[in-house]
Design goal:
single chain; about 60 residues; mainly alpha; 3 helices
Amino acid sequence: MIRWLLLGGLVLGLAQGLQKKWIVIDWCRLKGDLNIPSLTNLQPLAAPVCPEEVEPAPR
């Protein structure tokens, strides 16, 4: 019972922190750290989402 209360408090605290900008998640860095494939990996001609993914277009 107590663990559910703690888990609920963590979820509510995270939601409140994200809403009030106390917590900021850099989704591009998270995606790179977790090695999650993106649209650019799957389709090379797709527009990049993260600025560091920008590569010169093939000629």
